[in-house]
Amino acid sequence: MTTTTLTLVRGSITDQSVDAIVNAANSSLLGGGGVDGAIHRGGGPEILAECRALRAARYGRGLPTGQAVATTAGRLDARWVIHTVGPVYQVSGSDPSLLASCYRESLRVADELGARTVAFPAISTGAYIWPMEDAARIAVETVRNTETAVTEVRFVLFDERAYAAFAGQLH
Ligand code: AR6
User: Fold this and answer.
1) Rounded CA gap, 87 and 154, in Å?
2) Does any ligand 1 atom lie closer than 6 A to the CB of residue 25?
3) Domains in the chain, start-ordered, CATH in brackets?
4) How does pLDDT run across 35-50, given as a tens digit for each residue?
5) How many CB atoms lie under 10 A from the CB of residue 145?
6) Pocket probe mutation, ligand 1, options 8, 10, 14, 35, max atoms within 8 Å of Cβ
7) Closest Cα to residue 105, out of 82, 123, 137?
8) How far does the centroid of ligand 1 lie from the alpha carbon of residue 1, in Å?
């Protein structure tokens, strides 16, 4: 059984040197703001070209929420970008298993690729407005409970509030 170390970094996901960088994408796979925008800007047009090809070949209706798929990382200092689609938070009730699925499926894809180090953003906590404390709990619990050959899962948190929420789950 592999021991997976969970680490925390404050900064931008696009500055990480890892095997795979996870993108908080949307179903279209064609880009957006936040993490998604930063990844496409930093990685260059090769990523979008592969995303378009994936849409044409396998995901005509888009990548479903909670699933994950890999492309090149283009010019980023990584071998792959793993795109996953988080759920949009709804006050009327949101399914935490879909957010957990993003982490689990991204790790499954990482294992398929042979990635050993993987950087995750705080999926769904920006444009998709999932409350940070709850998202951090789901992220850490899910990674801890997923059997994977990944040796380092690095959570990359953009601001102090996100960092503190994840730190609170780890210690
Ligand atoms: N590095 C690390 N974290 C970041 C970065 C960065 N460069 N930029 C923002 N964050 P979001 P979502 C934080 O909105 O909520 C896009 O338009 C941010 O502060 O990127 O899953 C997609 O195309 C927040 O805590 O992802 C989708 O349409 C967290 O990353 C939609 O947004 C996630 O924020 C996905 O929304």
Assistant:
1) 21
2) yes
3) 5-162 (3.40.220.10)
4) 999 999 999 999 999 9
5) 10
6) 35
7) 82
8) 32
* pLDDT tens column, 97-115: 999 999 999 999 999 999 9
Q: Supply 158's token pair.
A: 């953009």
Residue written as token pair 């298993």: 97
- Residues 165 and 169: their CA atoms lie apart, in Å, by 7
* CA count, 13 A, side-chain hemisphere, 102: 30
The Cα–Cα gap between 89 and 42 comes to: 27
111 noted as active-site residue: no
- Distance from C-alpha of 6 to C-alpha of 11, rounded to nearest angstrom: 16
* Its pTM surpasses 0.70: yes
Residue type, 165: A
* 38 ligand 1 Cβ < 6 A: yes
Place of tokens 């992220």: 139
Tokens of 145: 């409970």
Does ligand 1 lie within 6 Å of residue 51's CB atom? no
Cβ contact 13:38 at 8 Å: yes
Q: Give the pair of three-digit tokens for residue 130.
A: 């999932």
